[in-house]
Specification:
By secondary structure, the protein is an alpha/beta fold. The chain is built from five helices and five strands, in the order E-H-E-H-E-H-E-H-E-H.
Amino acid sequence: MAKILVVDDNELVRATTRAMLQGAGHEVEETGDGNAAVAFVDKTPPDLVLTDLVMPIKGGVALIRELRRTGYRGAIIAMSGGGGDTGPSALLNMAREQGADDCVSKPFHRSDLFARVTAALELRRAS
């Protein structure tokens, strides 16, 4: 299976997502903010980064932009349930523009997450 980094400032979301992905056989690490995620990816690049978009310190759109700018070639899936005045769909569109392979709105169903993770990993492996 794949090595996946889950990035979310909400500990419960990280733990739940981690449990789902580990249950599917993936190796999962987690961080609570974008800066920690950049440091992690620099040391041990995962196959896929699953990142929230609305986070303090460094949000997901900035994280995606930095990862792609610095040459990260793994898959990235953005997730969001918020977004303030812009709403989640506007944020998810910005994530795609910055290099996210896919996006998912929170809350998500386990089957939808698994399908998106599988598709993003296959897409990156094929390229």
